[in-house]
Design goal:
mainly beta, 7-stranded mixed beta sheet, Coagulation Factor XIII, Chain A, domain 1, signal, Lipoprotein, 6-stranded antiparallel beta sheet
């Protein structure tokens, strides 16, 4: 009996882990997965990991902004996607840090691949407002930064509405994006976010 229960738990966990960055509508009207998450900042080098920054020096008027791009594979009709950032330190979904994109706002990059880009603006203070995410901003070049004061991390959570159903995609599989309180741009690459 104990072995059967352990096998059932293992099989259940496999399903949970396999669905971390994928989702499907219960009625079969659509499915999707997150292929990657990128920001406009890479830590320490061009091969560094993508990070987010609250306060950025040597970045002109973008001193409180981080552009984030999520690359997706989607099948079926997409009426809208609610984009949210979920913090890892408290596991709380920040309902003030969300935005909705229509299917038309998704950039079609071919073969069922799409991109949704948004700008996270920390200048709104600790209580981020819905307007702190701007869907489809001007594309930024990736910048190399040094960073201090680790504040935690986030991952995207997408809620997709197909018209007849809904499904959710949580991007835990690719890891989280670290957030730093202070970053300094040391160089700008030719790489688009």
């Amino acid at each position: 009996m104990k072995k059967m229960m352990m096998a059932a738990v293992a099989i259940g966990m496999t399903g949970v882990l396999a669905s971390c960055n994928t989702g499907s509508a219960p009625d079969g009207s659509g499915n999707g997965k997150i292929d990657s998450i990128r920001t406009e900042y890479k830590l320490n080098s061009a091969s560094g990991r993508f990070v987010a920054c609250d306060n950025v020096t040597n970045n002109g008027s973008r001193n409180k902004k981080t552009e984030v791009a999520i690359n997706l594979t989607l099948e079926g009709f997409v009426e809208s996607i609610v984009i949210g950032l979920k913090g890892n330190s408290t596991s709380q979904y920040d309902s003030n840090f969300t935005a909705t994109a229509t299917g038309q706002q998704l950039a079609n990059i071919g073969s069922g691949k799409y991109r949704v880009s948004f700008e996270a603006n920390s200048s709104t203070g600790s209580g981020l407002l819905p307007q702190s995410i701007v869907v489809t901003p001007t594309t930024q070049k990736v910048k190399i930064v040094t960073a201090n004061n680790s504040l935690g991390s986030f991952y995207p959570q997408l809620k997709v509405k197909t018209g007849s159903s809904r499904y959710q995609i949580d991007d835990i599989a690719f890891g989280s994006v670290a957030v730093y309180g202070t970053c300094n741009v040391t160089s700008v690459t030719n790489e688009d976010i």
